Amino acid sequence: MMIVAQLPWDERYARGEHSGQPPLAFLAELAARLPAGTALDLACGAGRHARLLADLGWRVTAVDGSGVALSGISPPVVTVLADLEKGEFAIEPGAWDLIVDTCYWQPALLHSIRAGVRPGGRVAMAIPIAGTMNPAYTVAPGELATSFEGWRVEHLREEGRLSELVAVKPG
Fold first, then answer.
1. Cβ atoms within 10 A of the Cβ of 103, count?
2. Reported confidence tier of residue 69, pLDDT bands at 50, 70, 90
3. Contact 9, 66 (CB under 8 A)
4. What is the CATH number of the domain that holds 51?
5. Structural domain count of the chain
């Protein structure tokens, strides 16, 4: 099946951009120490985190708006082509042990992300810090932790270009 590039992201992935990147270290460490469960990888891109989780026995659903990016992700990862900005994917409440969101900031999704994690489950995020790129896609220092107020923060690092957070849902 030929996938026609319709978005700039499709063109980037078709040129090989963002492929071959290793998983973020904090996420690899988290995935290795947790028992496998269900995971949702939002804006998964080429699937570096989805593949890591699947290799560790997680049941993974990976969502992205680029069909080109998703075409390189194979089972057992379940892929969903959906534009998150247009609301084409609904995060099922209480369905996930882990929700991963790296390099994609959409504040309107925060309520659904928080609701989608089971009690005792986790959210793992890595979002560019303000001043590193287009401000519409970045967070201010402390913004991720504030977004998960009332959750137990297991990991928070705001150095370099990314703000990293792992937070556990109460319950």
1. 16
2. confident
3. yes
4. 3.40.50.150
5. 1
